[in-house]
Amino acid sequence: MCGIVGAVAQRDIAEILLEGLRRLEYRGYDSAGLAVVDNEGHMGRLRRLGKVQVLADALDAHPLHGGTGIAHTRWATHGEPSEANAHPHVSDYIAVVHNGIIENFEPLRVLLIERGYRFESQTDTEVIAHLVHWELLQGGTLLEAVLRVIPQLRGAYGTVVMDQRDPSVLVAARSGSPLVIGRGVGENFIASDQLALLPVTRRFMFLEEGDVAEIKRREVNVFDKHGKAVERPEIESKVQYDAGDKGAYRHYMQKEIYEQPQAIKNTLEGRFNHGQINLSELGPDADALLAKVQHVQIIACGTSYHSGMVARYWFEALAGVPCDVEIASEFRYRKSAVRPGSLIITLSQSGETADTLAALRLSKELGYLGSLAVCNVAGSSLVRESDLALMTKAGTEIGVASTKAFTTQLTVLLMLVARVGRLKGMSEQVEHEIVHGLQALPARIEQMLSLDKTIESLAEGFSDKHHALFLGRGDQYPIAMEGALKLKEVSYIHAEAYAAGELKHGPLALIDADMPVIVVAPNNELLEKLKSNIEEVRARGGQLYVFADQDAGFTDSEGMKIIQLPHVEEIVAPIFYTVPLQLLSYHVALIKGTDVDQPRNLAKSVTVE
Ligand code: M6R
């Protein structure tokens, strides 16, 4: 969740570290800091509470010079956001940045206090700094000291350690949180995400689970979890250099909502062949595996979980394959029974979500038929550790509120359902309907985006509201859930979603004039049932906002505002109806004046459980 950047170079690197932090700020943004060592071995450290810009202003006033340094933007786990808790943490000449959680930090803290160390923060990270310092006192190099510290730590972490006395080297360790080395010419870098380093290099080497790396100006030495020297492949990044640029948009969330037609086009590209879905990228053995699938278990968190819920409707209705969906943090701690022939599908934008990764690892012990990841980040842990992977081509998603990652996940999932379905006897006709729906989708979403002003005008109605209810039926129920998550996440309005048929089983008691009720109403076989639910709300004075198909027969009336949407192919309606709910949340957040791209208390990539 926190962002890490480090550099070993001959030039001054403070600005490079700062730019890296700006690009990683979406991962955590309650405080930030950096430490830089110059050639004479002087270390300067600067930390500030608040956003990276506060740190940048401080750096203007107190410039730091030197070619070796580490930097960090924080999402607090242990200890409130404060300057004292901001990284880097130091122990005499040792400085450390860290992402993740050291679960046994309390006994380690007691042990270190007994050894005479004094703690200056409430963080778990500070134990790493003191442990490294202690081990160095026992002798050996920084690398050897870190290698001796690692077995003492429990938890998931990515960490980078610097010794003020020897600025020629940084040592990094990865256990559960991603780290990537950026290769330069006569200089090398490390970060928790390649995005941070794109201004200085496109050549990357991803550390694997348990790796420890020694990073010097002209060489990088990597050791695996057994301490054996290993080579990790170097890749040329294809991530757009300007991915971190908002362009003409006011917020990343807005930009990413508007990018959806193109992101879906990119996701579809190369995946059709003569009117059929072509997922040959899965490799020559994939069809044999998919043909054996008798059950699908989907695992994900947050927005990705909602796309899994939609996929469940599709797997069962279109491919005839039983499907369950579970939140990763529940699955990983539950004693679950594995169904015969069960394929585990993990869904994740980042591919680094701690609970989803843990669930995948558990599934291997439990004996699933195989694993398939649907992910937006090539080279992420989830992709590397799964048997099969299908990439969404959403491009980098920076806004903490997930938008284009969700609609491209659904796009990929529908193609996967079609492929599995065909292997299971689904008709060619249904496949054609899916292909047609998917091909038409980018243009349909373009049309939808042209209703932005209409949706913006609705947002006023939410300015004084504290709660909202979202309703949908069938495959629109997860879309209502996603709409509610988006609204609460970016506007801080409490929002809940219900399957509309559940209303009279309790939530109807909440309805009054202060409760906006948002309904997604495509023209499908559940429309009449949904209309009855809408009447139940209307009869009790609820304020309805109905996003309805233009042919669904709704008109504005007292207490009911209808947003007429263009007709869309039924099969892709869940993807299409997501977009107006994203726009609504965005505009409500603007009115509420929240930090749209970096909502309070959140971070983009949840690499701690
Ligand atoms: O990277 P992932 O898709 O695994 O992330 C899962 C959730 O943390 C994420 O979707 C979160 O719920 C978003 N903030 C929702 O907008």
Automatic annotation (TrEMBL):
GO molecular function annotation: carbohydrate derivative binding; glutamine-fructose-6-phosphate transaminase (isomerizing) activity
Keywords: Aminotransferase, Cytoplasm, Glutamine amidotransferase, Repeat, Transferase
Domain SIS intervals: 286-426, 458-599
Record's GO cellular component terms: cytosol
Enzyme Commission (EC) number: 2.6.1.16
InterPro entries to which the protein is assigned, alphabetical: GATase_2_dom, GFAT, GFAT_N, GlmS/AgaS_SIS, GlmS/FrlB_SIS, Ntn_hydrolases_N, SIS_dom, SIS_dom_sf
Catalyses which reaction(s): D-fructose 6-phosphate + L-glutamine = D-glucosamine 6-phosphate + L-glutamate
Active-site annotation: 2, 604
Recorded superkingdom: Bacteria
Domain called Glutamine amidotransferase type-2: residue spans: 2-218
SUPFAM superfamilies linked: N-terminal nucleophile aminohydrolases (Ntn hydrolases) (SSF56235), SIS domain (SSF53697)
Location in the cell: Cytoplasm
UniProt-listed GO biological process terms: carbohydrate metabolic process; fructose 6-phosphate metabolic process; protein N-linked glycosylation; UDP-N-acetylglucosamine metabolic process
NCBIfam families (UniProt xref): glmS, PRK00331.1
Function text: Catalyzes the first step in hexosamine metabolism, converting fructose-6P into glucosamine-6P using glutamine as a nitrogen source.
Subunit structure comment from the entry: Homodimer.
Name of the protein in question: Glutamine--fructose-6-phosphate aminotransferase [isomerizing]
Organism: Rouxiella badensis
Gene symbol of the encoding locus: glmS
